[in-house]
Amino acid sequence: MYSVLGLLMSLPFILHDISCLDCPSTYTQTNFILKHHVLSSTTVKNYQECYDKCASTTDCHSMNFYDRSQRCELNKGSHLSNPVDLVYNEQGTYSVHDSRSVATCSDKYCSTDTICVMKSNNFECKDCAFAFGMGVDSRKIPNSAITESSTVRSGHEPWRGRLNNFPNTTPYNVGVDAGCWSAGSNTAGEYLQVDLGHVVYVTMVATQGRPYGYKQYVRKYSLAYKNSDNSFVDYKIANNVKIFQANTDMTTIVTHRLPEKIKTQYIRFVAREWYGHISMRAEVYGCQIPV
User: Fold this and answer.
1) Domain boundaries, the chain
2) With contact defined as beta carbons under 8 Å apart, do 127 and 288 qualify?
3) Contacts of 137 (CB under 8 A, 6+ apart)
């Protein structure tokens, strides 16, 4: 386990104390700013006024101060959870509000097969099992927990969209069991949703196409998940929606390890491009949240 200060000092740049009467625990880096996370921007008289504004704003975790223009930007995140967003800017000074706890840290600070976990102002790298699914394939997750945006017809219900599922009717009867989920229309944005039962860390996903009968599969998809304020948001990397290259045939399993874990109970596979018809089988991988 390491303190936030320890993590900061291990980064490939030097942090300096700021001359500020009321911010003894603040650290800063000149010529850097954090982009994509600005809550508000205003003009101030000096750095301390910028710090005071951050201190009085609950969601402020760091700030960008521009000495020449006296502009102050309050950030809703920090480089601890968004390292790729810390960029060079010759006029800016980036500072961390050290007394604020950080909810998440980036997995980029940890080795492969481990995740970064924040506890108050401490972080540690925890093992996370990538080899085991969260229960879609194994049927640990019940049918009622797998839902969808629409279904084309009977026999194509969302709970049939389990990885490695196959029609169990002989002879094959598409109206009884297609062995997959098929959307009601070929429209970008159709989705297959999984309720994982409780909040977990999602670290990897996998998909297949329709197993039998018709050549149908999703070629590209994105992910959406329910966040802490109970609304669904797109999974993004560097502020851009992550598009996953999916299937090119009906049966091959295509897996993707997520660049950054997702903390959620609900996750959606959102169809972007497809062949024949939007048909899918899927699995979600991850680990329990360490206590």
Assistant:
1) 27-102, 130-288
2) no
3) 162, 163, 164, 165, 283
Q: Which of 194, 189, 191 is nearest to 146 (CA)?
A: 194
Counting other chains too, the contacts that 150-155 makes at CB distance below 8 Å and 24 or more residues apart are 150/183, 150/184, 150/185, 150/190, 151/181, 151/182, 151/183, 151/184, 152/182, 152/183, 152/184, 152/185, 152/277, 153/182
CATH number belonging to the domain at 27-102, selected among 3.40.50.2300, 3.50.4.10, 3.20.20.70, 3.40.1710.10: 3.50.4.10
> 3-class SS at 195?
strand
Contact 255, 182 (CB under 8 A): no
Q: What is the DSSP letter of 173?
A: -
- 130-288 shares the fold of 27-102: no
How do beta strands 71-75 and 2-3 pair? unpaired
Number of residues that make up the chain = 291
pLDDT, tens digit, 9 for 90 and up, residues 18-30: 455 555 456 688 8
CA distance 168 to 134: 23
CATH class of the domain at 130-288 = mainly beta
Burial 69-96 (b: 16+ CB within 10 A, else e): eebbbbbbbbbbbbeebbeebeebbbbb
For the stretch 142-156, pLDDT in tens is: 999 999 999 999 999
Phi-psi label, residue 184: left if phi above 0, alpha if psi -120 to 50, beta otherwise = alpha
Q: What is the pLDDT of residues 225-278, one digit of tens each?
A: 997 778 899 999 988 999 999 999 999 999 999 988 898 999 999 999 999 999
Cα R_g (the chain), whole angstroms: 23
